[in-house]
Predict the structure.
Amino acid sequence: MQYQCLKRVAFFLSTTLMITVGSIVTAQTTRAITIAVNATNREDVGNSLDIDVNSLLEQAQSQAEQGELESAISTYTQVIQADDNNADAYLYRGVAHHDLGAYQRAIDDFSIALQIRPNHAETLYNRGEAYSHTPLINEAIADLTQAIELEPDTVQPYMDRSVLFASIGQFPKALDDLNKVLEIVPDSANAYYNRGKGYIELGNSDLALTDFNRAIQFSPDLAEAYGNRGILLYQLGSTSAAAGQTHTKLSLTKE
């Protein structure tokens, strides 16, 4: 299953614990994930709901997709006032709060949604992602783990959990998650790039170089991969090749 994004943003998540240029790539960083509204197919929406509530949900989703997040929050709140057991309204309002940087409000909404609809993978993923912006890293990992247990073939929770493991120095666990991502999506440049950085932390330059090569193969515009490959080549004594990689990174960054 592939979660859908309410809005797409940069792929890179900074971390002070990962050495070399650039940042760790994650499929989901500065935003949470939601699913498209489809009132006729949602299991949690019964036939007894007034059609106005469904219309409000669609209106709020449209507002959010257009970047009108404050308006979307207001509309989702109207849905909640009409039906305080509507898990989707809390989920989507939480996503809007998240995208505004109001992570605690997002966590609160996701938590209510989970009280109404426990063991919902998308909501757990969203709350875990929101927790990752707070000091509560263990809570973030716990939610992402539960999302993985519920939907083990979905990529995003593995990607995000690998970043969290790396941020606390648990690189073998981060590599395990990235290996799983590559089982599901064998051409994931982001996973190869992150795994290459993990191998650097574990002192395995050869495997790191192989992964940076694969990242560039699958995503020739991935500037950070060139930068990190250049540093690695320099450390291995290939100064001319390293200079070429740095030039390529700078060219891509300017674009």
About this structure: The chain has twelve helices and four strands. The beta strands are 4-5, 12-13, 24-25, 33-34.
